[in-house]
Fold:
Amino acid sequence: MTKSKNMSRRQFVAVSTAGAASAATLATPAIATGHVEWRFVTSWPRNLPGPGVTAQRLADRVGAMSDGRLKLRLFAASELVPALEVFDAVSNGAAEMAHTAALFWQGKVAAAPFFTAVPFGLAPIEHITWIEHGGGQELWDELYAPFGLKPFMAGNTGFQMGGWYRRPVNVLDDFKGLKIRMPGLGGQVLARMGASPVTIAPSEILPALQSGVIDATEFLGPFSDMAMGFHRAVKHYYWPGFHEPNGTGEAIISTEAWNALDADLKAVVENACRAENAYALAEAEWQNALALERLVKDFQVNVRPYPEPILDAARLAAKDVMASFSAADDLSSRIYRSMQAAKDRLGPWSNISQAAFFNARQIK
Structure:
């Protein structure tokens, strides 16, 4: 596992032709006496620092904790199915499990992005608290049930950055016609600000930036972004990531495969997801700090805050986007109200605990 942290971008972006060929011949999960093998597909390049490493670690955890009784055979993006088709692959039985992000499924399930992040929404610990203690998991289960899927939190890349831009964005007019890769509800916010958001798979972002197909992109935090090589194409890196203040990765499991597991193996999967969720969040905090320093010192990236007028416009646009859920279908409305209630409950405590302390800790 430690080796994967030090892999080059060339190594993790490369997709093995032989691996893809062998994957294509795999039709059914291997089941031996007392042992189960699941096809585990992901939306990430193999060993991508952050979510790609999390997916591999999760497979390793499940294998070790089950003493080999449950094996997750991992297929990175496009090795078995394309990155943005893993939801359908698990739903239709082409795979038993996936590692991905809920915000990709907005076109299928309008409220899905709530289970990754929403603009100006919950911070990482607040999000985990909502899922675990505020009724979020039950609503998530209900949302995915019609697709035959059981979701879990499984990794977190922490606070996100605002994005990479070819040119500085100093005023609101700079967003007009801007082609930016931004999926989820954040893309809807920027569309209201005049931008033209697009959704493309992670492995396609850098070529799109280099060729000029897009003018800007967001992805994750400095750790994963540096590994993806965005700093080689553009140099303006903005904060805060108001569009996505949290980075929950999801494990989605076929309910048929899930229900076929013995109770102890269900406990293994659930607790492996919980363990990876906590470990990955801590890793993200540490590695993002290191990567941010390198981006500035070694690669001369211009790390800058969004101007306040742009944040003001984003808040207003986000308010409109989020309000649309209050009048949506019953389940979407309940998810919106539940998340908003968690934000209202946790916000005052976050303000006088974390926010106040971080402000007090600064040397004036």
